[in-house]
Write a structure and sequence with these properties.
Elements (H helix, E strand, L loop, with lengths): L1 H26 L10 E6 L3 E6 L6 E5 L6 E4 L2 E8 L1 E6 L5 E6 L2 E6 L5 E9 L3 E2 L8 E11 L8 E2 L5 E4 L2
Antiparallel strand pairs: 1-6, 2-5, 3-4, 3-11, 6-11, 7-10, 7-13, 8-9, 8-12, 9-11
């Protein structure tokens, strides 16, 4: 009777060993080939809307890149639409992406006669691609405009600025 129990125990151990080996084999499978990184623009401009400086002493306005919320200090928002920039990025899951860019740019008044400084912020950076296409990762661009005292009324804009996508 004892020998029957002993043999049964050996069979169970052997079966468990086969299950462990087969589960390890799955962990060593070849990875899928890399998916090229793609970037698709959704909203290509950051817009701050129409602002009024009641004391003509300057102020600032911020578009939060994470939330898209606009806040201002020393200025009154009197209309116009505001929006953060939005881009979709896709690639191989697990890829680390770091965005680099010039954080401070100058906006020029249409027709000349004035400039406004803008500090750019991008969210998120760095980040990991978490799922394979067609799922996308979104990045958002916002920032802060700083108006100095006495800045001339008008429409201010800048040339395109470059964002470099790095894969360390």
């Amino acid at each position: 009777m004892k020998s029957g129990s002993y043999i049964l125990s050996i069979r169970i151990i052997a079966l468990a060993g086969i299950l462990i080996i087969s589960s390890l084999a799955k962990l060593m499978a070849q990875e899928d080939p890399p998916v090229p990184i793609t970037i698709t623009p959704v909203v290509t401009s950051v817009a701050f809307g129409t602002l009024y400086d009641p004391g003509n002493d300057g102020g600032s306005v911020t578009i939060n890149p994470q939330t898209g919320i606009r806040t201002q200090s020393g200025l009154i928002a009197i209309g116009g639409s505001f929006t953060r920039g939005e881009y979709e990025i896709s690639g191989t899951p697990g890829t680390l992406i770091v965005l680099s860019y010039t954080a401070d740019i100058v906006l020029n008044r249409s027709g000349g006669g004035g400039t406004i400084d803008m500090h750019i912020e991008i969210y998120p950076s760095p980040f990991f691609v978490v799922e394979a296409p067609p799922v996308v990762n979104k990045i958002y661009i916002g920032g802060t405009l700083t108006l100095n005292a006495g800045v001339s009324a008008g429409t201010y804009s800048s040339e395109d600025f470059t964002v470099t996508l790095n894969q360390p």
